[in-house]
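Lab meeting notes turned into a lecture example. A postdoc, R.K., suggested we walk through two folding results consecutively so the class can see how the record format repeats. The first protein's sequence and structure tokens come next.
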Amino acid sequence: MTESSSKRGLSPILIVFFTILIDMIGFGIVIPILPLYSLHFNATDWQIGILFGCFSLMQLIFAPLLGRWSDRIGRRPILLFSILGTSLSFLIMGLANTLWLLFLGRLIDGASGGNIPTAQAYIADVTPLEKRSGAMGLIGAAFGLGFVIGPAIGGLLGHYSIQLPFYVAAGLALLNAVAIYLFLPESLNEEQRKAHPAVSGSLVQNFLQVKNSHLSTVMWVSLLSTLAFSLVTALFTLFTAHRLQWHARENGWLFAYIGMLGVLIQGGMLRRMVPKVGEKPLIIVGSVFLFVSMALLPVSSNLIWVVVASTALAIGNSLVTPLVSGLASKSADAHSQGIVLGVLQSTASLGRMIGPVVGGFLLQYDANTNNALYGISPFWFSALLMLASLVVSLRLPDDERTPSAVKRS
């Protein structure tokens, strides 16, 4: 398969980049619309939080299992399964006429959502150790570019029909699966797949299998930062609707701006900064940006300050997320990339599950206040979480090469 792809002149990393890009365009189309769409089913703030959280609950359970399966049977079949599940979930949400069908679509998407850790494992398979974090930045760039294109499309489509963005996202995911089937080679040969132990064991055993001190610290940073970030993003469109009276179109353009910053940082700047500065200092800087943005956002009362806070949010997330993945990958041997990155994805999913639920709960305390105070409770709570993440990030090892990585090289 690899030889076939080479003859076509296609780089596997480039194919993975476009795979994630198309996936994130679909994701970006839907996410800014979803909180507003759920209001059509008379969902409360609490239910909207659970709607976001249930997706991450399913990822928490299934991401390590899909990671182990990708180590055992290959990355390509898991990517196909994951993206086909995404297509089905968007179709169900578009066709939904009750709130429970909206929840069903989110649950299916979460259960099949192993595409990001599998794509990260794929890149780890084909990338030298010293270029690992920079290569992970390509996935971050695909995230960012997807959030440039996706929300802009979603905002425009949502202006005509609130269901239309879901149908378009489902179609994009289906085309993505076809492209993977036709063009993406498998990164693990048969011997590498056989070298991995059989897929078995409980969820807890999956976590214990990759336990080491370096990875534990990385995962705490991932958990706390993702929890804080997901809390903010889940409530962001409700916040701007109350503070600035924005609708889908305005939110779509702001998400596109945030995505463009992510592309610039993760697609180009990050690869030059990591060799000169190192992962740990950049994660610390990113954590500071996230803390400042979350503290500033709830007291932002006009467009300028919301854009300033959003800029800091984009910079911080663009630094922290890909570098945490790079450090986690360096803690794994060649046969365990899938399970390690799957467990990291589950850790992040735990944060994405808890964050929106807690945010929805805290938002109830602001619901009866005037618009000038709307969102202050959950957003300041997220700032405290980022402060805790910043403290933990100070404990990351100064040497970016973990003992397992040094042994491998």
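The second example is placed directly after the first for contrast:
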Amino acid sequence: MVDSPVPPPASCPIGWQPQALAPVFWGVRSLGPADGAPVDLRIFFPSLDGAVESAPLLEGCGRYPLILFAHGHCQQDTDHYLRWFLIPAFLARSGYVVVVPRLAGNAGGNNPSVPGHPDEATLDAVLTWARSGWEHADVLLPPPATGVIGHSFGAMLGARFAVGRPVSAYAGLSGGWQDWFGAEPFPLPLLDLPTLLMWGLSFDLFSQLTEAQWQAMHRPRHRVVFDEGEHWDYLSAQIDLPCRPGSGSCSEIAAATADLVTMFFARYLPPELATNLAVEVPSSLVPPDLDLTPEQEFFAGGFLGGFHRLGSHPECGVTVSSDSERLLANRRTRETHSLDHPCAWVSKIAARNRWPVGARPAGYHWCDMCFPSRADG
């Protein structure tokens, strides 16, 4: 079993590929149709430069998975896609390329459960552009190294989009699951891939799954419930939203969510050379302590810590469930349950894509732990 990262090629200016347990800085570009993009969007990526808006992409250190972020509906907030930066930035620091497009249907209040939702085509166009039209498309791992994350209507749209497409992991933040009324089938039990769902118990009523709905979902599945969480708490309280009357009582939810989402994708959709993550990120998704070199520590300022800060705030109760076993908040566990072990998931993906027995997708070094080399013959 491979439990350490693969050293990057000589073309890499640092001694490691960016990953969730050894981050770098991040950069972002705002692009649109004038730049060849299908819609207005932001694209986040790893960088060694702290200038962000002008920071160059870190290349030559191994390829990165692609993650699509789908925003929801915030009435009167015409540029709502621009509000989302903490989660995409954390993921970019961890070795991902994250695209956050403007979704006109969601922005206009179109429920993603209705047939012919226009944003499904938009996500398809953005995915195609990122993999073939973006000037740095060659830094991306090929399909199925694609993740999807969304909030509210975006979580609903993202789940619908992920069904039947080559997507390897999905995360939904307060999707309006109890507001799914259209003719399209309810997507969550159809997702045969690792899934992370979050919601709050305060005034986040339409986002809460019943126990029957939760049990109907495939494994591995992860659930995070914030006792005082409200629908918009994944965005910092400092962000003024016309659709948010006020922030919830727990100010750490946004940072804790960024931590947990980063750990989730690290475990199930790691960068090309990060062969350690599937075993070093626990099934609880609680961030482990970072063991960094002095050079790596330079890039790690302000990274992680949000989930652990929940423990110092009585108003920030949280319950994290992994598969069917409930794990207490802030308990440092490194248990790996057989049903949600990454190799079990890889085997399911291999069967679904009809790979030959013992085969592994070319270039996916992190699969070495699940497909050990065999003697010829």
